[in-house]
Design goal:
Blueprint (H helix, E strand, L loop, with lengths): L1 E5 L6 E6 L7 E8 L9 E6 L9 E5 L6 E6 L7 E9 L8 E6 L11 E6 L25 E5 L10 E5 L5
Antiparallel strand pairs: 1-2, 3-4, 4-5, 5-6, 7-8, 8-9, 10-11
Length: 171
């Protein structure tokens, strides 16, 4: 797969980025995110979930300005559907660094296909070596993996962020 970025004013193609191997389905999930590299341009979160079961899913944050890879995170297991849902969250914990959420709808962390959502962030301008999961979902006995979707902005002043979590088991 591939992802293309177009200028919102002129419609001109800015850049194109492709996956790393045949059948990796790069672009299976995509979200805009806040500026991770400090260039003043919002960036993009892009996931790949390969058709080849021997290859692991991965997540990339791409520069909105150049398409350069700013950060990569590899899924835990080739069969976990890591990256089927992604969301740029902005700075959700007030530490001055941007965060991104990624779902793995069929991961078996807390039972068969219980799924999980992880939120990553780090030192520097959003990217760093201390990225760690903040949350892992509980076991889901409904058989459907969980998903996280966002709409709106992460601006506290705008007060318009909507998070939608689906297929979450009851407490």
């Amino acid at each position: 797969g591939f992802v293309r970025c177009y200028d919102g004013v002129t419609g001109a193609l800015q850049w194109t980025r492709s996956g790393v191997s045949d059948g990796d389905r790069f672009g299976i999930a995509l979200s805009g995110t806040a500026d991770w590299d400090g260039d003043g341009t919002p960036d993009a979160v892009v996931a790949a979930d390969p058709t080849n079961a021997a290859l692991q899913s991965y997540l990339r944050i791409l520069s909105g300005d150049t398409g350069d890879v700013l950060w990569i995170q590899i899924g835990d297991d080739p069969d976990d559907d890591y990256g089927r849902s992604v969301a740029g969250l902005g700075d959700i914990n007030g530490d001055g660094h941007n965060n991104v959420a990624v779902g793995a709808s069929t991961a078996s962390v807390n039972g068969t296909a219980s799924g999980f959502v992880r939120v990553y962030g780090g030192p520097g301008v959003g990217c760093g070596g201390d990225n760690a999961p903040y949350c892992t979902g509980a076991a889901n006995s409904t058989g459907s993996g969980s998903a996280l979707l966002t709409n709106g902005t992460t601006s506290i002043a705008a007060n318009e962020l909507v998070l939608l979590a689906t297929n979450i088991p009851p407490a």
